[in-house]
Design brief:
Blueprint (H helix, E strand, L loop, with lengths): L1 H7 L5 E6 L4 H17 L4 E6 L4 H6 L7 E6 L2 E7 L4 H9 L3
Parallel strand pairs: 1-2
Antiparallel strand pairs: 1-3, 3-4
Length: 98
């Protein structure tokens, strides 16, 4: 949890993907997140959190379904949505917090 708090206390946006290995839609997010990283480069950090391996973190953020995407900046949660999103949508969303 402490390491996670260090990650999200960045002054640039941090996109967190809460996922599970067994989740089909989560697998669809992998190339989408790679596209977002290619578009945004160093302007954004992308962190993937396996809910099965980090159950205490998933419980803390009340993750009910995967994938759940969240954007943090300066340690504050700014946005949250469950389900698959397209790279362009995510890129435009992240631009609001750069």
């Amino acid at each position: 949890m402490e390491k996670f708090n260090e990650l999200i206390t960045s002054n640039s946006p941090v996109l967190v993907d809460f996922y599970a290995e067994w989740c089909g839609p989560c697998k669809m997010m992998k190339p989408i997140l790679e596209d977002v990283k290619a578009m945004k480069g160093e302007k954004v950090r992308i962190v993937k959190v396996d809910v099965d391996k980090h159950q205490e973190l998933a419980a803390y953020y009340q993750i009910q379904s995967v994938p759940t995407l969240m954007i943090f900046k300066d340690g504050k949660q700014l946005w949250r949505q469950s389900g698959v999103m397209q790279a362009r949508q995510l890129s435009e969303l992240l631009a609001q917090y750069e």
